[in-house]
Amino acid sequence: MIQLKDLATEKVTVISGPYGAGKTNVAVNLAMDIAKSGQICRIADLDIVNPYFRSADNAKMLDAMGVQTMIPEFANTNVDIPALPPNYHMLFNGEGKSVADVGGDGDGAAVLGLSHDDYIEAGYKMYFVYNRYRYITAEPEGALEVLEEIKRASGLEFHGIINNSNLGAETTKEHILNSIPYAQKLAEIANLPLLFTTAPDWLAVENTIPITDITKKLF
Amino acid sequence: MGEKLLMKGNEAIAEAAIRAGCKLFFGYPITPQTELAEYMAKQMPKRGGLSLQAESEIAAINMVLGAASTGARVITSSSSPGISLKCEGISYIIGSDLPCVIVNVQRGGPGLGGIQPAQSDYNQATKALGHGDGHAIVLAPNSVQEIATLVGEAFDLADIYRMPCMILADGALGQMMEPVDFEAKPAREIPAKDWACCGHGGKRVHNIVNSLYIEPDQLEKIVLERFERYKKLEENEVKYEEYLTEDADIVLVAYGITARIAKTAVRNARKKGIKAGLFRPITLYPFPKKELNALADKANCFLSVEMNMGQMVNDIKLAINCKKDVYHYGRTGGMIPSPEEILAKIEEVSGGNA
How does residue A45 score in pLDDT terms, banded at 50, 70 and 90? Predict the structure, then answer.
């Protein structure tokens, strides 16, 4: 069965999709999987839109696992400005593999359009994270709208769909299984392959990629 | 829908408002509530409504005043510094006896402060949302699911009591994502809006919406009438939740997101043999005075837990007539207390003999 790290066939792996689909969770799990396989890996938090709940929250844990983090200088501080990480160029010319966690709509993806040529030159694959249980983008048609928006803003192509359907702590095995036809429908109308379905690691659903929840817990 | 879906708190406020029949949103973007305005901008035109980004918070609240005068359901939202700007307009809305819903997704203050979660606008919300003798109803949801029901309730309460109702949230609640089900909220009877300026068609005397009364005796009369309504509100609309308070020696008092952190601390305290409980006011105005006072006859002490420097402490002391000690544990400036910190405070104030 395919593993997360198999996504990283090119220099840069871009993880994108609607807000709240679970991009950061997928991106962080992917980076950890690459690092575990012995490759040099870095993750860039390119979410310049949303100052809450992002890759930057996990910097310490990622450092400990051997994943280099590239985080906007003011992330998680009170400076409310959209800024890219100072070592942004490492994404394209650093050693090993890079994972980019990109904020999920046309505005968030504008950051990709900015460096469009760098992605083409370095070589990239971009994947769309889908969550059947996310309001507004729950239906394949709604998700497709966001997918097209990100394509337009970035000028880049998607290479596959990741079905990351979950309902947070309330996710059940049925939620995962029931989501698959919808993810298949999205793949069909987007004319992209459905690469795999994920599930929270504690659910241990067969034939899925287990994902560890790295979201900051308040209580 | 029946099926649960994941939503951010900010999105749930917007969706619940639209579902409550609100067709008008006037606002101005500010972190951490911007998703609410974004959601309105995307959804309102598709659903027969209007979402307008005004040139400032002051303009937005005065648009709310105008729209509310016609009897329409209307909402505005902002975060702390933006709410301060709206206060003049809110006072005019209170003085004009108009219903509307105002959302404050609080961030650290004072001044521009920060963009991380805080509850440091408690005093502003409950005591002085603008000048003059007057109040706004203040509701403090603690989850995305509760937002889904309380926003509809906010519109109903505003209409029934003809006054603004504030949803007092915070950055954490606005930004966090949780499963939500917009189940039907029990319908309340809404009185006819015979005061609204929506065209008399030559069939009745025209209505006037106004907050200017030059004759002091007339203004006093109107304020007194308004306070009669506040009395009814205090009698009938207090909402709260109790958790393990029945035999509690120490009662934590917390609202909003902090109440969920405090709940974990209470559970952990129980594991250590400390009889802790949690009292969660859902209406911050009207404050659940009677219910807290009843608890003061049983408990040894109270611990207020907030993301501020202790703004609710005096309300608790007044509610219980200072019968028992009231302690405070808080973080401020955008810092969020952890269950461990709260537990340490519980252990400190119960001194091993709670």
Answer: confident
pLDDT at residue B290 tops 90: yes
Residues B231 and B263 in one domain: no
Q: Do residue B73 and residue B140 come from a single domain?
A: yes
Question: What CATH number is attached to the domain comprising B340?
Answer: 3.40.50.920
Which pair of structure tokens corresponds to residue A143? Answer: 């998700």
Residues of chain B with pLDDT > 70, as a percent, come to: 98
> Which tens digits make up the pLDDT trace of B74-117?
999 999 999 999 999 999 999 999 999 999 999 999 999 999 99
B residues 167..206 contacting A (CB < 8 A): 171-172, 175-180
CA-to-CA distance for A19 and B28, rounded, in angstroms? Answer: 21
CB-based contact, A2 to chain B, within 8 Å: no
Per-window interface: A 42-61 vs B, CB < 8 A? 50-53
**Chain B partners within 8 Å of A53 (Cβ):** 175-177
Same domain, B52 and B142: yes
Examine the domain organization and report whether B39 and B157 are in the same domain: yes
Domain boundaries, chain A: 4-211
B332 in helix, strand or coil?
coil
**How far from B305 is each of B133, B172, B266, B273, CA to CA, in Å?**
28, 16, 12, 20
Integer CA distances (angstroms), B318 to B20, B90, B210, B233, B321, in order? 35, 26, 34, 19, 5
* Same domain assignment for residues B230 and B280: no
B4 touches B179 (CB < 8 A):
yes
Higher pLDDT, A136 or B298: B298
Using a CB-CB distance cutoff of 8 angstroms, which residues of chain A are in contact with residue B8?
19-20
Domain finish residue from B179, B214, B236: B236
Cβ atoms of residues A99 and A68 within 8 Å: no
Residue B1 clears pLDDT 50, i.e. is over it: no
Topology annotation, domain A4-211 = Rossmann fold (3.40.50)
In total, the C-beta contacts within 8 angstroms joining chain A to chain B are 62
Chain B contact for A81 (CB, 8 A cutoff) = no
Q: Would you put residue B105 in left (φ > 0), alpha (ψ -120 to 50) or beta? A: beta
Q: A50 and B175 in contact by Cβ < 8 A?
A: yes
B203 is a domain residue? no
Sorting pLDDT into bands at 50, 70 and 90, what band is A84? Answer: confident
Taking CA atoms, B76 is separated from A97, B105, B137, in Å, by: 46, 11, 15
Residue at B278 is within a domain: yes
Say whether B115 and A170 touch across the interface (CB within 8 A): no
In this structure, are residues B326 and B317 in contact, taking their beta carbons and an 8 Å threshold? yes
Instruction: Say yes or no: A217 contacts chain B, CB-CB below 8 A.
Output: no
Q: Name the residue among B240, B45, B236 with its Cα closest to residue B146.
A: B240
